[in-house]
Amino acid sequence: MKKQTKFYNSPDAPKPNRPIHMGAVGIIRNSEKVLLERRADSERWAFIGGGLKMEESLEECVQREVREETGLIAEGLKLLDIFSYPYRIAAYPDGNIVRIITAVYEVFVKDLKELKCSEESRELRFFGRNELSDLTIAETHQDILLYYIKHFND
After folding, report:
1. If you ran DSSP here, which 8-state letter would residue 137 be given?
2. Mean pLDDT, to the nearest integer, of 17-40?
């Protein structure tokens, strides 16, 4: 899998040369812990999610990504926020540079026993709040992590 470079609030970020990339991520919790994936393309930890396809809604996008990346079925969704800051940039090895806008949902799943890792991930793991600061988080998920820490006071 080819690696991409992501930037978050960096003056070194290149200027986008492609249309804006829209995506959705899900915050999946189990008691006081949140599910993250260690991505195969960057070895960084991230919330479960990905890019919006032309024929789907944001809700369908997060449901699909949750199913593809974890094997879990989203039973319910709650829109938490939209992250649209212009400094959320990803540069791909093929030269494409995109600005990323991400819708963040709280995702409710019925059965966590179905959890399974996809080819896009090296590992899936639930983390408690005290473990999150030690992780290397994907740059475009750092603001989402700060949101999670601020708003989920388990």
Report:
1. B
2. 94
